[in-house]
Amino acid sequence: MQSIFYYNTEIGKIGIEENGAAITKIFFINEDLQEDISEKSETELIKEAIRQLNEYFQGKRNVFDLPLEPKGTEFQKRVWNALKEIPFGETKSYGDIAKIIGNEKAARAVGMANNKNPIPIIIPCHRVIGSNGKLIGYAGGLDIKEKLLKIEKNYNK
């Protein structure tokens, strides 16, 4: 059974979902809450996830240590694994990620996979920017993407 719990955070209201073994989704309040398939329950794993997220928001954590099970295609999972390798406080372009996964012409497909990331922040899709250095696209909105990058810039010293 999926469990889900909602929290007010420094970046707004989020939901954290897990399947009994791993975190499966983190979403911003502007996304579909899927309450029909999830039990509202603050499990130990969800409590640990919000603890680590709060440490991240406060600049006390730059690496997450949680079991993750994002659902997606093999290509999406390759992209998401590459995102996890972007160091705290750094950014990469969609083209950079395409090169990292061995398909340098797949920048647009990387962008689509980035957009489908079910576990933002922990799988740091906010660290991917346009090749011109501009912030483009983020499920939580560009204002949240900007806040996350600012957190990392301020604490990456």
From TrEMBL:
<dbReference type="InterPro" id="IPR008332">
    <property type="entry name" value="MethylG_MeTrfase_N"/>
</dbReference>
<dbReference type="GO" id="GO:0006307">
    <property type="term" value="P:DNA alkylation repair"/>
</dbReference>
<dbReference type="Pfam" id="PF01035">
    <property type="entry name" value="DNA_binding_1"/>
</dbReference>
<dbReference type="GO" id="GO:0003908">
    <property type="term" value="F:methylated-DNA-[protein]-cysteine S-methyltransferase activity"/>
</dbReference>
<dbReference type="InterPro" id="IPR023546">
    <property type="entry name" value="MGMT"/>
</dbReference>
<dbReference type="GO" id="GO:0005737">
    <property type="term" value="C:cytoplasm"/>
</dbReference>
<comment type="similarity">
    <text>Belongs to the MGMT family.</text>
</comment>
<dbReference type="InterPro" id="IPR036631">
    <property type="entry name" value="MGMT_N_sf"/>
</dbReference>
<dbReference type="InterPro" id="IPR036217">
    <property type="entry name" value="MethylDNA_cys_MeTrfase_DNAb"/>
</dbReference>
<dbReference type="InterPro" id="IPR036388">
    <property type="entry name" value="WH-like_DNA-bd_sf"/>
</dbReference>
<keyword id="KW-0489">Methyltransferase</keyword>
<dbReference type="InterPro" id="IPR014048">
    <property type="entry name" value="MethylDNA_cys_MeTrfase_DNA-bd"/>
</dbReference>
<dbReference type="Pfam" id="PF02870">
    <property type="entry name" value="Methyltransf_1N"/>
</dbReference>
<keyword id="KW-0808">Transferase</keyword>
<keyword id="KW-0227">DNA damage</keyword>
<protein>
    <recommendedName>
        <fullName>Methylated-DNA--protein-cysteine methyltransferase</fullName>
        <ecNumber>2.1.1.63</ecNumber>
    </recommendedName>
</protein>
<feature type="active site" description="Nucleophile; methyl group acceptor">
    <location>
        <position position="125"/>
    </location>
</feature>
<dbReference type="InterPro" id="IPR001497">
    <property type="entry name" value="MethylDNA_cys_MeTrfase_AS"/>
</dbReference>
<dbReference type="GO" id="GO:0032259">
    <property type="term" value="P:methylation"/>
</dbReference>
<comment type="function">
    <text>Involved in the cellular defense against the biological effects of O6-methylguanine (O6-MeG) and O4-methylthymine (O4-MeT) in DNA. Repairs the methylated nucleobase in DNA by stoichiometrically transferring the methyl group to a cysteine residue in the enzyme. This is a suicide reaction: the enzyme is irreversibly inactivated.</text>
</comment>
<keyword id="KW-0963">Cytoplasm</keyword>
<feature type="domain" description="Methylated-DNA-[protein]-cysteine S-methyltransferase DNA binding">
    <location>
        <begin position="74"/>
        <end position="153"/>
    </location>
</feature>
<feature type="domain" description="Methylguanine DNA methyltransferase ribonuclease-like">
    <location>
        <begin position="6"/>
        <end position="70"/>
    </location>
</feature>
<keyword id="KW-0234">DNA repair</keyword>
